[in-house]
Amino acid sequence: MRDPKKTARAAHGKRGPHGSAEVSSDASTDGGYNAGMAVFSYIIGGIIVWSLIGWGLDYLWGTRWIVLAGALLGAVGGFYLSHMHGLTSSRKNADGRHAPSAPSQDGEDNAK
Length: 112
What we know:
mainly alpha
């Protein structure tokens, strides 16, 4: 059951003690895992479905290469779907902006 106070604070855009928006703990802890499983299922599901379609066409037409083309099409299609759903986007900071990928402005990098 949801806590009505937390839901009301989230709906009104209340800020936490450090100025950042409050996020429920269950959504923030396994979001990466859920996104990874969704990408995995899109790609594996695409491979399975399009391989079966290719296998059926191979059986009907007496060929042996369409199943491979179907598997490749399924993998590309699964990755495309996961990208279009925003599951393969770049990392983001806590405030929702993209994390910087360039060297810092002072010329020093933080690589170890």
